Amino acid sequence: MNQHGHSIDVPLSIDESALTGESLPVDKGKGETAYSSSVVKQGQMMGIVTQTGFHTFIGRAAHLMTATQPVGHFQKVVNRIGVILVALVLTAVAIVLIAKSAAGYHFRDQLELVLAMTIASIPVGLPTVMSVTLAVGANQLARRNVIVKRLMAIEELAGVEILCSDKVRRSPSIPRGHRSH
Question: Model-level pTM greater than 0.85?
Answer without folding.
Answer: no
